[in-house]
Amino acid sequence: MPRRLDRIALSKPFVFAACLLPLAWIAWLAVQGGLGPDPVARLEHETGLWALRLLLATLAATPLRRLTGWHGLIRYRRMLGLFAFFYASVHLVIYLVIDLGGFWSQILAEIAKRPFITVGFLAWLLMIPLAATSTRAMMRRLGRHWQQLHRLVYPLAVLAVLHFLWQVKYGETIAVREPVIYAAVLAVLLAARVPGWLRQTGVRGSGAQQQ
Amino acid sequence: MRRPPPPIPGSEITPEAVWLRRREIVKALALAGPALIAGCGRAGDSAAADATGTADLPGRPLTIAQRGAYATDETQTRLHDATHYNNYYEFGTGKDDPAKRSGRFKPEPWSVDIAGHAEVTGRVTLEDLLKPHPLQERIYRMRCVEAWSMVIPWVGIPLGDVLKRFRPTAQAKYVAFTTVERPAEMPGLSYPVLRWPYREGLRIDEAMHPLTLLVVGLYGRTLPNQNGAPLRLVVPWKYGFKGIKSIVRIDFTESEPTTSWNLSAGDEYGFYANVNPDVSHPRWSQATERRIAGDGFNLLGNRVATLPFNGYAEHVASLYAGMDLRAHY
């Protein structure tokens, strides 16, 4: 059966390439020695920032679809989510291998004792089952549990933003608005879902009354 | 009869700025060679290119009378990194803000108010403050509380030598310092990040310790604005924030002075702030540090162990004998 030309399917390779651009840019800076006086800190900052941006983009798909009525948006969501996981993994590897390089005995203590690292690591851990169950086959196999599982994205996004907020030195949040802006965007994206959740529970509630 | 030698034509005289950086220039040319051949450069090359120029050298050259005291032979931080990666919140909280946003700051003329428990008090011009003291170069490690560090050749005089001239009395148990507060020249002051003006302090014996340096320059030249021109403190065994910049007031006090970071977040930043790998910052470990030194291309292996008192324990540990350094962090 001949399929209608699918614009979204055709655009996906371009979106894929676009998602790799930040990595290419960061790598180029590293090769050029353009990462500044503290290159490792810059690598961590950039990769972490892109992980968070893509995570928020993933979360924006549903509210934006409702807002614009463009249902195709949802078909990019998996790719954005997987790229968020990819950048978060690169971020973690840079921290473990390059930053802590030579001081690996410190790793467990760091993860356990530093609240901002604990929280960041937890956010990354929570992404693993989501990435692992992102295939169509896994969706079918898990059925309605799939959606329940993928609600993990909300707490993990909160953890990711906390990770960003907590690593900032005291006082900086007043002048450096970046982490605060990300927290605000997440708050808006979560708030946009509240009416839907209320409606869902409301429908179930009234349904029970009718029986 | 001998004739006087002909005058040297001006074209053969090396400009002072080039002469001062002759070693860097030779090194830069040596570095640039292979890169030119290979046809691929990196940021180090642009720094090398700067070395051959004369325009962007910060400050004026200083005459240094003595070198080598307490020196370390560890790889030094590049001048560019030491002057473009700074915490000086009066110019903004970003590491590059001080270099970018301190251009309007005027470090001349300068004077310092001496106050409190001393026989001699009052306003002193910077020239009078410095005049009796020959300048020394001190190559110190600088450990930031944020767990990065540098190795910087400072130029200054031992603070104690200066303080003694004002004859502090027996009541002078502490020395308090204040940074200048000029909103028109310091854009960061518009944000209530800290309670301005910036304040720091030392116990009198810490202030009199020969390691404690009143600094007027780095890398043989006067301090650039972003590094605390024209007069700052460097206390190498303490976290960097103790090194108050652009000092306008020195106060001999009887009680422990309030300090800016302690005021803002007392649980994170103590009065003593001695570098201590065993006492973590509540949010991160202080056991190790990222060393910013050398050509800036060492992505791997720039983490080093943090030493008690930043490696100056043999000189200063006795100041804290009997003190619980976990309680007095």
- Approximately how much beta-strand content do the residues of chain B carry? 15-25%
Number of strands of chain B: 13
H and E string of chain A: HHHHHHHHHHH
Principal-axis shape of chain B: globular
Helix content of chain A: over 70%
- What order do the helices and strands of chain B follow? HHHEHHEEHEEHEEHEEEEHEEH
Q: Roughly what is the average pLDDT of chain A, rounded to an integer?
A: 87
The CATH H-level superfamily of chain B is Oxidoreductase, molybdopterin-binding domain
The number of E-state strands of chain A comes to 0
Biggest sheet statistics of chain B? 8 strands, mixed
Q: Based on helices, strands and strand pairing, what is the structural class of chain A?
A: mainly alpha
CATH architecture assignment of chain B: Alpha-Beta Complex
Radius of gyration of chain A: 20 Å
Largest interface: A-B, 35 and 43 residues
Structure annotation, total helices of chain A: 11
Tell me the domain tally of chain B: 1
Shape of chain A: globular
Topology diagram in text:
The complex is a heterodimer of chains A (211) and B (329).
Chain A: H1 7-32, H2 39-68, H3 77-99, H4 107-113, H5 115-132, H6 136-142, H7 144-150, H8 153-166, H9 172-175, H10 178-191, H11 194-210
Helix pairs in contact in A: 1-2, 1-3, 2-3, 2-8, 2-10, 3-5, 4-5, 5-8, 6-7, 8-10
Chain B: H1 16-20, H2 22-38, H3 43-52, E1 66-67, H4 79-84, H5 97-101, E2 111-116, E3 122-125, H6 126-130, E4 136-143, E5 148-158, H7 159-164, E6 174-179, E7 199-203, H8 204-208, E8 213-218, E9 221-222, E10 232-234, E11 247-253, H9 260-264, E12 288-291, E13 303-305, H10 313-316
Parallel strand pairs in B: 1-4, 2-11, 5-12
Antiparallel strand pairs in B: 2-3, 4-5, 5-8, 6-7, 6-11, 8-9, 8-10, 12-13
